[in-house]
């Protein structure tokens, strides 16, 4: 099968030029001016951007959490992602306490196999890592293509792991080509604040934010970086939400410590006044970390511009307002944490970043596709348009506008955090490994088009080979 994309403006993290692209089967085979080869399908991309498919490195599809399960599974979630120009998600498999990591991965393969509209991979959430389980981590990296491991400083009794476990994981992964992704919030202190708030009868959604202050995130971020330094490993902060935490990452990077971080659209476009929405509407925005005071948004954009933040992911973890968010009507701590976002990341960041003049179009591609591909072991197969790369390509109309609404979105959730917001920049046609799956904004693919992608080892530090602390023991 040969597909020719004609006359588009090809934009990668570093390039910006008009040319044609020939795709043979699943990969880009030729890029050049006025290509004349015969093709089975020709797509006119004139007046459009031709960009690498988005990579959302943080989704929670079909995830049991907070006494319920996120409502997008691998079919609906990846289909919604495809509509928005995302051609790959890295989702989170969860190891329950005492469970084998291998068994946990099998369960997540079972959830995704034959359902996905786009390619996918897994991080592993590790909740339990005695020394004799490190061999399973090695197997993940060497054989299963799972090279990143999320650990939680939050949610005591459920997902939280202690500092010794984090240090052990960082030391091991740092040496064997893996990466620890940190949920950096001091969950022990947060739980105490929640206890006090509830004891005083403060049960409304806004107390979710008040009991998770920015200092709790900054402390976790600082601790994660210190642990990584002691372990001589890199570290990646997930869903960084505020200036206090960003300052810690920036300070570390200025000292040459390999600390990396993502933020999410909700922290760039929404703020903590959303928790005041009437009729329990604030529950829609209950996510961790919570939305912050609006002034943080500018700081996050500066972080993105200056590369102290490398990626924008969504932390897509949707729960319906009806029956799911409502579980916490009388107690904010029972509202399932998480919000929808996988569908509109590309348009939101293009609109709020490029159209608003905060970042240029190359940086847009970099933070939504190239950087996640590089950090998580997918580049140059994914994250760019180059000869030999997978033909995950989006024909993006930079001038077209759309209004975001739950009435028209494809996510399986009954509200949108951005209801009524107009954005400029729409993904019109989407190719996943050479196959057109969205054509003129209509889904034309099939469940199972998306395939599991093994990821390569991750090398984000270039210092001594082993922990300087451990070497002295
Ligand atoms: O509220 C959130 N973020 N839910 C998903 C779990 C997590 O911590 O990423
Ligand atoms: Zn998290
Ligand atoms: Zn998450």
Structural features, described:
With 473 residues, the chain is α/β, with parallel strands linked by helices. The protein has helices spanning 74-83, 101-112, 134-144, 163-176, 187-199, 206-210, 214-231, 243-254, 265-269, 296-305, 345-355, 361-375, 468-472, and strands at residues 2-11, 16-24, 27-32, 41-44, 49-52, 54-59, 64-65, 68-69, 86-94, 119-125, 148-152, 179-183, 235-237, 259-263, 311-312, 393-403, 422-432, 435-439, 442-443. Strands 1, 2, 3, 4, 5, 16, 17, 18 and 19 form a nine-stranded mixed β-sheet that branches. It has an eight-stranded parallel β-sheet with strand order 6-9-10-11-12-13-14-15. It has a two-stranded antiparallel ribbon with strand order 7-8. Helix 3 packs parallel to helix 4. The radius of gyration is 21 Å and the shape is globular. The protein starts with a strand and ends with a helix. The model has no long low-confidence stretch (mean pLDDT 97). Bound molecules: N-(aminocarbonyl)-beta-alanine and zinc ion (2 copies). One zinc ion (ZN) binds next to loops. N-(aminocarbonyl)-beta-alanine (URP) binds at residues 60, 183, 239, 287-288, 315, 317, 337-338.
